[in-house]
Specification:
This protein is α+β, with helices and mostly antiparallel strands. It contains 14 helices and 11 strands.
Length: 644
Amino acid sequence: MHLKTLELTGFKSFAEAKIAFPKGVTAVVGPNGTGKSNVVDAILWVLGEQSTKTLRSERMEDVIFNGTEARKPLGMAEVSLVIGGVGEERLVGLDTLPNQLSEYDEVMITRRLYRNGDSEYLINKTPCRLKDIRSLFLDTRAGSKGHTVIEQGRIEQILNSSPQDRRELIEETAGIVRYKKQKAEALRKLEATRQNLLRVRDIVVEVRRQLNSLERQARQARTYQNLQQEAKALEIRLLVLDCRALLASKATVESDLAQLDAKEAGQAAEQARLNSELEAVRLKMLAGDEAVTRIREELARVEHQQAEAVTAAEVERGRLELYKQQRAQALGDSTRLGREREQAAADLGELRTKLSRIDADIADGSRVLSELEQSERVLAARRAAAVEEEERARQGILDVTVRTTNEENNLARLEAQREEARRRAERLTEEQAEMDSQRTDSFKRLRGFVQDRKEAERLRGDLQRERDAAAQEIQRLEDRLRDTEQRVGRQQEELAATESRVRALQGVMREEMGYGREGEGESTSLRDCQGVREAVAEWLVVPPGLERAIEALLGERVRAWLVDGPAQAGHAIDFLKTKDLGRGAFIPMRLRVGASVQQGQGWWPTMAHEPGVVGQALDLVKAPEDSRGVLTYLFEGVVIVDTL
């Protein structure tokens, strides 16, 4: 793999720039402040660098172009790095990327940063994750943390680094970082798989418990369904019997109602006939009343005329009596006036005339009286006839009244019967309504039974679906368990291969430290030299948590070997030269303790109570008693604290 081009847009001092890297060595030269370091920062940034200190900025947004006198500030920083020489061996493990990259000869890595803090990563213009970019450069010694980018002071830092940092550098150079990460990932997945298996077992136990409960519920549901069916059958049978009884009662009631209707129709016809007869009688009574009224009026008129005639007759009788008295007086006077006859001879004719006139009047009065009597007799006859007619009319009215009373009684009886029939019809209607209500209730109960049956069937279906779902879940979990076991097997194989390579690398490191290679027929270890005991790293017993502090304190002396004395150290150096095993450091076991230690440390009681002080290294680190002098030599006056 090699760099081909670098495109910068809005990154630090570059508004727009494109740098090509031809084959061979490319040097970027120029005076101070021209942006040489910004090119390296751009490469580190596009490869995923997250430290603002490494990028020589206070905030990540500071890498965005802030503008100049000639150009405005930009709102986005984008760097694209094209890397050529990409082989399939570099793309192993990138199956999680959006696209397969093995078909490309070069890869373009792009990173964008906006002023609002949003960022984007792209591989060949396809959005991806920062993890994917780091995985791409995991074993290439490139990337933001790789040793392919070495700044000023980095060589010295590597030379003076701790054994742990050197080991990481060696492992990265050897190409086992990927395997260590895969091992850690495999261990993490194994632990996750174990946790998943525990959860699966718990789920299986819970599902089995639920299955037992569901089976009990299913049995109860089946029992309930059977009882419901039996109850429903009995209820339907009872409803059928009730319905038949109600239908028979309804037929009887309808027959009675028909008879009552026919009887009521006949009574209505009879009542209509009687009403017509009563109306005719009433008309006759009205006509009779009119005749009686006319007769009474005529009788009154006749009586009035009779009274007038009687009055006139009495008047005439009085006049007749007066005339008779006058005649008697005249006759008396005639005798008495015989003498005056001569005197009254002149008046006699007049008197005779007057008398004849009076006789004519009397004859007229008698005639009128006879006429009046005749009229009175006629009127009396007519009155008797009228009275007789009135009596006959009264008798007819009485008969009609009796018949009317009888008819009214019959009508009242018919009304009573009709009311009784109506009440009976209402009672039958109420009974029919009650029966309809009972039938409605029965149908409702029947629908309720049907609904209960549907609900039971639905519950049974739900239970069956839950059971099927639980079975499918168990099957899925078992398949997942088998897949997990297969992945665990594959990961264990990968772990075994990784451990084999680690052991090989450890052998290389053991050889470097002078232990010699394991498994060879001829021993090349310093232990074969007389007087050489063991390495300082093996000799010390360091409390947990203090390893890094003790390792930083000892530095290169952690690889030194303990020997009995200076002579044995000389023999060991000769051995290294003879076997061509490189360099080595040796510490004699017999060392004299310094005067300061022998006189004691008066400063320690005061410092021991300072915050953050853990203790003296001489008290914390343990070693055999016969090597106390070496321990004092190494850790004299050293205090361990929590932080610097």
